[in-house]
Amino acid sequence: MFRNRAEAARKLAAALSAYMGRNPLVLAIPRGAVPMARILADELGGDLDVVLVRKLRAPGNPEFALGSIDESGWAYLAEHARHYAGEDYLEKEKQAQLETIRQRRAQYTPVHPPIDPKGRIVIVVDDGLATGSTMISALHALRARGAEKVVCAVPVSPPDTLEKVRQYADETVCLLAPTNFYAVGQFYGDFPQVDDSEVIAILAEKRGG
Asked: 153-163: b or e for each residue (b if 16 or more CB lie within 10 Å)?
């Protein structure tokens, strides 16, 4: 258990101390991971930004991920995706999530373009993995954009998800991998929603906007 995201972030920073002073690019998967990524960037002496990816939702069950899509339009589909949805549905869902990504980019970084990951050590942070779909898309996107090293950093993940995600990263740092995993929030004493205004304020502060 973690008391809150801040405690989890400090523990992650300690586990990532090898990157201190190496100017890592710390990228958060919005929204919950953004306050955590700010702590990591401060502790490790790195830059902060967001990596925008979206879950592809199952018909009639938006919490159930069929896969994910990144800002470039590349999509990861889980093995079970086509058991739940046909190609027409999946294509419409991809376009809907791409539009949400475009809106969020305009909202989150209206002054600054995304920080270029090319040639950088990139640490991708989320507050926990469930299916791992959005993390897979994020890691793929950064490798495609020329990151020197891609690190997945999360406080908690089920073991099978961790193994699935590990193949997309050069290094995976996870503090807890319990078998009795039901939801990310069960491992936090305090797990409030993070809203867009908080994300925008953190990015503006760290990037001088």
From this structure: bbbbbbeebbe
Strands 149-156 and 171-176: parallel
Distance CA 42, CA 20 (A): 10
CATH of 5-52+115-207, one of 3.40.50.2020, 3.30.479.30, 3.40.140.10, 3.30.70.980: 3.40.50.2020
Q: What is the Cα–Cα distance from 142 to 112, expressed in whole angstroms?
A: 18
Kindly report the CATH number that applies to the domain delimited by 54-107: 3.30.1310.20
Closest CA to 142 of 107, 115, 180: 115
CA-angle at 60, arms to 55 and 62, nearest 5°? 25
5-15 pLDDT per residue, tens: 999 999 999 99
* Cα 201 to Cα 67, 173, 193, distances in angstroms: 29, 27, 15
SS3 label, residue 25:
strand
Q: Report whether 155 contacts 2 (CB < 8 A).
A: yes
Residues in contact with 83: Cβ distance below 8 Å, sequence separation at least 6, in sequence order: none
In the structure, what pLDDT confidence band is assigned to residue 111 with cuts at 50, 70 and 90?
confident
pTM of the full predicted structure? 0.94
* Gap between the Cα atoms of 31 and 53, Å rounded: 11
Instruction: Say how far residue 138 (Cα) sits from the centre of its chain.
Output: 6
* 88-95 contacts at long range (C-beta below 8 A, 24 or more positions apart): 89/59, 90/56, 90/66, 93/56, 93/57, 93/66, 94/56, 94/69
